[in-house]
Amino acid sequence: MSFQNPVFIPGPTNIPESLRKACDMPTIDHRSPLFGQILHPAREGVRKVLKSESAEIFIFPSTGTGGWETALSNTLSVGDGILAARNGMFSHRWIDMCQRHGLEVQIVETPWGQGLPADRYEEILTADKGHKIKAVLATHNETATGVRSDIAAVRRALDAAGHPALLFVDGVSSIASMDFRMDEWGVDLAVTGSQKGFMLTAGLAIVGFSQKAMEATKSARLPRTFFDVHDMAKGYANNAYPYTPAVGLMNGLNESCKMLLAEGLETVFARHTRIAAGVRAAVNAWGLELCAAAPDLYSDTVSAIRTPEGFNATSIVTHAASKYGVAFGVGLGEVAGKVFRIGHLGSLTDVMMLSGLATAEMCMVDLGLDIKLGSGVAAAQDYYRGNALVAQKDAA
Ligand SMILES: *Cc1c(COP(=O)(O)O)cnc(C)c1O
User: Fold this and answer.
1) Is residue 349 scored above 70 in pLDDT?
2) Where residue 395 falls among pLDDT bands split at 50, 70, 90?
3) Is the dihedral of CA 74, 79, 82, 84 positive or negative?
4) Which residues line ligand 1 (CB under 6 A)?
5) How many A from CA of 181 to the centre of ligand 1?
6) Which of 36, 117, 226, 258 has the most CB atoms around its CB within 10 Å?
């Protein structure tokens, strides 16, 4: 692997130089006002990125998966009902975590490549007169299939059914890259990690709790120690954690939020949309198809690209790594070997993306696919020329 090349995996993402420097700092007393000067602005920054006025933000030394566990263990009890659709590897893993915690998951099997079925959710919630279902899970962006779901529609389903269940949203590969509106969508638990839209290394679980979710923590009985938000809140009140925080990463997170807010969230989202549209133009020019079944499902952070029948899509990823020192994502679970994934989120520009598309093309031609060198790159170039942001802020 060449350290000069950007990565094109859907996380961890490329780390801007300024954030790498922010993480590299001398040891400080992590129970001091000095740490508070990092901790409180970082939490405030995250709250703004989530577009929430009143969410409580908790940040654990962990990853997105730990964020799921934080959300579940603090708000639910053994035997509680959960409603979840399975439409990819990440929603699958979240369901598995619920089951291992003794929660009773009603699973809506959904073809991989489709979005969350808000209509089915509404039917099931309407039928649940006794309100056995305590939480509805929604994976905003299925990183395995490159599918973005409509969280506002899931909220409407809950409201139409008049159902009080909490709305849990996995935004690990969408938050800070694609529009996310915690308050407007009535999200109760918003989960993410440090290594995708926030452009840092893995190491932080980031979770927003609505006031309703905070209320639920009082009666929730699932065991929790490391991820207990009440212990964490007591720590925060003293500029500290109940244990040792990842100080450098927290400093990086604080800087990351400043960077995102300085670029402007809407500009960040527009940059992702534009870069993704260029990737999709290339895929189309190659004569290939996305795993995502329809344009309104296309993710702006990752594209899962189907390769022709009989071709092993994973070979593109292995070949790109060994011959060109470039990383793409493999297919996971049901679509392993059938798709390869191009991650296009975080610190990325049109120019970086063109290099990734050029590399994918070289690999596909090397491996005998009937694709013309330059075809996808030209389609993306055309798109980027016509849709350039005049002054691209220094995102990289
Ligand atoms: C990456 C990812 C996760 C897992 O996050 P980790 O930080 O690896 O624990 C969960 N959900 C989605 C949608 C993801 O993209």
Assistant:
1) yes
2) very low
3) positive
4) 11, 63-65, 90, 139, 141, 143, 170, 172-173, 193, 202
5) 19
6) 117
Q: Which domains, and CATH codes, for the chain?
A: 17-262 (3.40.640.10), 264-395 (3.90.1150.10)
- For 96-106, give one letter per residue: b (16+ CB within 10 A) or e: ebbeebebebe
pLDDT band at 12 (very low <50, low <70, confident <90, very high): very high
Question: Predicted confidence band at 290 (pLDDT cuts at 50, 70, 90)?
Answer: very high
Query: Which tens digit of pLDDT belongs to each residue from 192-227?
Result: 999 999 999 999 999 999 999 999 999 999 999 999
- Residue 371's identity, in one-letter code, is I
pLDDT > 90: what percent of the chain? 96
Q: How far apart are CA 332 and CA 33, in angstroms?
A: 44
Report the atom number in ligand 1 closest to the C-alpha of 143: 15
Give the pLDDT mean for 112-131: 98
Cα(135) to centroid(ligand 1), Å: 19
